């Protein structure tokens, strides 16, 4: 089941306030430090980070499990005359044509994986990387999912779309249940559609354990968009993992 079947159509409208250029520049700084050129992006969504990174001249293959999100990305690929290779792929089972200099995932990709899935992602990324390659990914922190998003309702509106997110944090699973209602303009009327999403609140220690089990020895963690050590109330964690 494609959980982004309806949201994919309005995703970019709902995320218009995100500074993808700044986000890509942050990742670019790490990529330059590690001499990366050939990239694989997991959980690329509609390609917003992908296209910004492509401006730096990277050779990019990008995958996502949602056919609807990939369809939106491919449409932009044509309009922008970009040279991105988009593939339908599960981030737990990364396949690349030769080893990549870097595997990246931006904007919550691993949050959609349970503990077993997180371990699969880490091992799959490790295998996909060349020796000396780097894995870059971020997650919304447990603090954010439980205390910032959990128990709250969010409302986004444009001229043609209304999106309502109702969030419930399940402590037993350490997971955020998101019930999404979309009203999308169809001529003079609005069509109602609903989707459900789940994000898992992985602790930093659990993520580091999964990475070490996969083979990563060099692991750095930052308060995302900075190079600072994360504090207890950090909203997003950035992981930088190097393969020996």
Give the SSE string. Answer: HHEHEHEEHEHEEEEHEE
Decide which structural class fits the backbone. Answer: alpha/beta
Share of helix, binned: 25-40%
Radius of gyration equals 18 Å
The strand line-up of the biggest sheet is 3-2-1-4-5-11-10
Counting DSSP H or I runs of 4 or more residues, the number of helices is 7
Largest sheet: number of strands, sense, barrel closure: 7 strands, mixed
Low-confidence stretches: none
Strand composition percent: 25-35%
Number of strands: 11
Mean pLDDT over the full residue set: 95
Q: How far is the first residue's CA from the last residue's CA?
A: 37 Å
Notes on the protein architecture:
The strands form two sheets. A seven-stranded mixed beta sheet has the order 3-2-1-4-5-11-10, with helices on both faces. With 244 residues, it is of the alpha/beta class. The protein is 29% helix and 34% strand. The mean pLDDT is 95. The longest helix has 14 residues, at 20-33. It is built from seven helices and eleven strands. Helix 2 (20-33) crosses helix 3 (48-54). Helix 3 (48-54) links the parallel strand 1 and strand 2 (59-64).
Secondary structure layout:
Layout: H1 11-14, H2 20-33, E1 38-41, H3 48-54, E2 59-64, H4 67-79, E3 85-88, E4 100-105, H5 115-128, E5 129-140, H6 142-149, E6 153-157, E7 161-170, E8 175-186, E9 189-200, H7 204-214, E10 218-223, E11 236-242
Parallel strand pairs: 1-2, 1-4, 2-3, 4-5
Antiparallel strand pairs: 5-11, 6-7, 7-8, 8-9, 10-11
